[in-house]
Amino acid sequence: MQAAQTYDTIVLGAGAAGLAHAAMSGRNGRRILVLDHAKRPAEKVRISGGGRCNFTNLETRADRFLSQNPHFAKSALARYTPWDFISLMAAHGLTYTEKHKGQLFCDQKSGAIIQMLLDEAASVDAEIRLSTEILAIHHRDGRYDVETSGGPFQAERLVVATGGLSIPKMGASGLAYDIARQFGHDIVETRAGLVPFTFSGELGEKFAAISGVAAPVRASVSGVSFDEDLLFTHRGLSGPASLQTSSYWHPGESLTLSLLTKSDLAQTLRAAKQARPKQTLAKALEDLFPARLAALVADIGPLSAEMRLADLSHAVIDDFAAFTRAWTLTPMGTEGYRTAEVTVGGISTDGLDQRTMESRHVRGLYFIGECVDVTGWLGGYNFQWAWASAHAAASA
Predict the structure, then answer these.
(1) Which of 340, 379, 343, 344 is nearest to 195 (CA)?
(2) Tell me, what DSSP letter sits at residue 182?
(3) Are the C-beta atoms of 269 and 309 separated by less than 8 Å?
(4) Tens of pLDDT, residue by residue, the chain (396 residues)
(5) Helix and strand tally (H, E) in the chain?
(6) Cβ of 294: how many Cβ atoms within 10 Å?
(7) Cα-based distances in Å from 182 to 187, 224, 277, 335, 369
(8) pTM of the full predicted structure?
(9) How many angstroms from the chain centroid is the CA of residue 97?
(10) Are 57 and 384 contacting, i.e. CB atoms less than 8 angstroms apart?
């Protein structure tokens, strides 16, 4: 029987959280091994932000993360901030550009972030083994035995950073949840987050007909609202407005869209009625919306698209404006984990120490990153959670 190779810490997962933890933990003099079944490390980092890697958000705070315990993330986020990661980048000569609402993108693109993480891991002699399947894990005499396709390994600390269920074509799996259950942890029901909505029937057909059209909206669901851009697609609704609200949405719930957040539709239509009384409603709406969206809004609203403005009373105009401020619709569903950027839910925080991410059930077992029931908004928040939770476990 092959003898197990021994390390101080074994990290499962060579993604953002796993690589960051390997480098941070290795600075404490620990001998680190990182295992991953993928052929290349950090593939989700590679595709993030359209390849530019939205690596953090300057507006990071705990209330922009979903969790059954809204306070759990506070400790880790406070002890490793966006500026800590920015300082690390600066040490490697990497620069960034701030975009919408505090979102920071790497000027040298995602590959540079991955190389930085690999260089950091290499600087502390962390060993990374890819294309290695995890077959079984056992805990005996204060040590973790990890059986893999590359042989057995052993360590006093096991850090699980294998992510959630989002984007299975890139190798996502439920391994973290299986390990958590094995050691007595509860799993908060998971669902796809930061994912487009799908629609069927007549409304789905209307959305498909204007696929590619985008417009700023206020999207609301379950008591939360986001002022973002909405994108109509062949399958339904996408864009930041849909992605943000999808993390809070549950099947059967409605989605409310306010189509004009910075204009007074009623006032605009009254002025158009005065100036061009013979103009149709659909044509008048083109002053406020892209032409194809104007036609859709006129078509789905309480009025006929071909009605002349002269035939609309002020009360009718007010009613139509109210409709555009609170258009309520019910998605058929979402595109699911196939295109989801994150997994909502995961390993319950009740079983974890918020300061160290260590299991409350078994010593030396840690869970970090996306597999934990902490899910950030769109815009770099989930990467910041990866860095912060990795740091918390490394500081234990």
Answers:
(1) 340
(2) H
(3) yes
(4) 689 999 999 999 999 999 999 999 999 899 999 999 999 999 999 999 999 999 999 999 999 999 999 999 999 999 999 999 999 999 999 999 999 899 999 999 999 999 999 999 999 999 999 999 999 999 999 999 999 999 999 999 999 999 999 999 999 999 999 999 999 999 999 999 999 999 999 999 999 999 999 999 999 998 999 999 999 999 999 999 999 999 999 999 999 999 987 788 999 999 999 999 999 999 999 999 999 999 999 999 888 888 999 999 999 999 999 999 999 999 999 999 999 999 999 999 999 999 999 999 999 999 999 999 999 999 999 999 999 999 999 998
(5) 13, 21
(6) 22
(7) 11, 35, 71, 30, 19
(8) 0.96
(9) 20
(10) yes
What tokens does 276 get?
Answer: 């061009």
> Which residue type does 165 have?
L
Distance of CA 337 to the CA centre of its chain: 11
Q: How many CB atoms lie within 10 A of CB 246?
A: 28
Q: How many residues make up the chain in this entry?
A: 396
Backbone torsions φ then ψ of 162, nearest 5 degrees: -90, 5
Instruction: Specify burial of residue 337 (Cβ count, 10 A radius: 0-12, 13-18, 19+).
Output: buried
Burial of 299 from C-beta contacts in 10 A (0-12 / 13-18 / 19+): middle
CA distance 100 to 227: 12
How many CB atoms within 10 Å of residue 209? 13
Token readout for 239 is: 């864009």
**DSSP summary character for residue 298:** H
Kind and range of the H or E run holding 98: strand 96-98
Angle at 296 (CA atoms; ends 291, 301), nearest 5 degrees: 130
Contact (Cβ atoms closer than 8 angstroms) between residue 8 and residue 156: yes
